[in-house]
Amino acid sequence: MHLVPEERAHRRTIDEHTVCEAIEGIGDTARIAEWSSRFALLGEPGRLALLLAVHHGGPIAVTDLAIATGISDTAVSQMLRLLRASGTVTPHKDGRIVRYRLSDARTAALLDSLGAAAQG
């Protein structure tokens, strides 16, 4: 049981090999925290709809996002602030208009797989 942390090594296992594979699959705790944060962003239906709209329609302006999602401009702006802070979307100025695009490749891959699952 080479991967079991010392503080858990005294516990009796059923299958030591399976325990080590499970620990290896869990990986680094920092990575777990990063993915947990990413899933939290996707866990609210409005944000998920917004991210899907940005991913498939971006670069896209706040007003257009509000129309596409059925969410008010104010709520879209608030959600975008959170998504900008997390590094998930980035704003780009186009004259007086600010357009948003998805900037996180891992989130894009998740959104792509969500779309593939819905179609299949």
From TrEMBL:
Alphabetical UniProt keywords: DNA-binding, Transcription, Transcription regulation
Q: Does the keyword Transcription apply?
A: yes
Q: Which positions fall inside the HTH arsR-type domain?
A: 27-120
PROSITE patterns the UniProt entry points to:
HTH_ARSR_2 (PS50987)
Q: Which InterPro entries match?
A: ArsR-like_HTH, HTH_ArsR_DNA-bd_dom, Metal_resp_trans_reg, WH-like_DNA-bd_sf, WH_DNA-bd_sf
Give the protein's recorded name: ArsR/SmtB family transcription factor
The organism is Streptacidiphilus cavernicola
